[in-house]
């Protein structure tokens, strides 16, 4: 089950990736923790240093993943990795 959710999260990220790339950024999937329902990602490129990156993450990426995969998933930006 967790593998299916992880694949769905990756598919959702790949679906929204072009929007981030259009602005000079990108997103990388790191992992999905099924127990906590946390999807760890890394914003890169222009997104990594953008002051609006948290807004992009919650109102864009997380909202899309919650709509298409699971409404309880939280997306966490692990930029320190």
From TrEMBL:
Q: Which GO terms describe its biological process?
A: iron-sulfur cluster assembly
Please give one Pfam family short name.
NifU
Q: Which Gene3D superfamilies match?
A: Fe-S cluster assembly (FSCA)
SUPFAM superfamilies in alphabetical order: Fe-S cluster assembly (FSCA) domain-like (SSF117916)
Q: Which GO terms describe its molecular function?
A: iron ion binding; iron-sulfur cluster binding
Please state every residue range assigned to the domain named NIF system FeS cluster assembly NifU C-terminal. Answer: 11-76
Which InterPro entries does the record cross-reference, listed alphabetically?
Answer: FSCA_dom_sf, NIF_FeS_clus_asmbl_NifU_C
The entry sums up its family as follows: Belongs to the NifU family.
**What is the recorded name of this protein?**
NifU family protein
Specify the species: Candidatus Ornithospirochaeta stercoravium
Q: What is the lineage of its organism?
A: Bacteria, Pseudomonadati, Spirochaetota, Spirochaetia, Spirochaetales
């Amino acid at each position: 089950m967790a593998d299916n959710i992880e694949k769905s999260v990756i598919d959702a990220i790949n679906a929204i990736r072009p929007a981030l790339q259009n602005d000079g950024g990108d997103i990388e999937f790191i992992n999905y923790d099924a127990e906590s329902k946390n999807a760890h990602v890394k914003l890169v490129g222009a997104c990594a240093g953008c002051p609006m990156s948290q807004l992009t993450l919650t109102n864009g990426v997380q909202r899309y993943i919650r709509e298409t995969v699971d409404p309880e998933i939280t997306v966490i930006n692990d930029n320190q990795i």
